[in-house]
Write a structure and sequence with these properties.
181 residues, calcium ion binding, Recoverin, domain 1, two-stranded antiparallel sheet, 4 strands, 8 helices, mainly alpha, EF-hand-dom_pair
């Protein structure tokens, strides 16, 4: 099981989740809907990926939305506020580390356009585009390229993915999905 702090979230983790929430809240009305999370993000993916990869992104988003935010704990709600998102995170969802790693691998595979198990800065830029990043891509890329070899390999991506979602302390992975600021 993925360990959950049952509401004992650090201020940093809450700040990081609020940034994610703001990325997904496209119309900035304080509510993330299924359409914003899945459909709008898929539309952005279609702008930077071949259509079949954009559809893979759609599947990843759909699975994630229904696994984490629209489930029996939320009465399968199709939208949530930030406070509701935090309450959802207090439940210990039956998600194993292996499932988290699989999700990270799925994301990696969707953006590894040349299938070489490495993301170059242009491939990672595509990933950041779907999350409405406005920051300098190279700076974000460099913060995730922990071994400084000018590529993000599968392990770096998985480590950053896991740290982004569960890390309670400041880390280079805090910008994993980019930033809107």
């Amino acid at each position: 099981m993925v360990k959950n702090p049952k509401g004992n979230f650090s201020a940093h983790w809450i700040f990081k989740y609020k940034e994610f929430f703001d990325i997904m809240d496209v119309d900035e009305n304080g509510v993330v809907t299924e359409e914003e999370c899945i459909d709008s993000t898929t539309e952005r993916a279609k702008q930077v990926l071949p259509s079949w990869r954009a559809m893979a992104v759609n599947g990843i988003l759909y699975s994630a939305f229904y696994l984490w935010w629209s489930n029996e704990y939320t009465n399968f709600s199709k939208s949530f506020t930030f406070q509701e998102m935090l309450r959802i995170e207090e439940f210990e969802l039956p998600i194993s580390r292996e499932e988290t790693v699989k999700l990270a691998r799925d994301w990696f595979g969707a953006f590894d356009l040349d299938c070489d198990s490495k993301l170059m800065v242009d491939e990672y830029s595509n990933f950041l585009t779907i999350f409405r990043n406005t920051a300098k891509v190279q700076d974000i890329f460099d913060s995730i390229d922990w071994n400084e070899d000018d590529v993000i390999d599968t392990n770096e991506f998985i480590d950053a993915f896991e740290d982004y979602w569960v890390g309670q302390k400041p880390s280079p992975s805090d910008v994993f999905l980019g930033t809107r600021y």
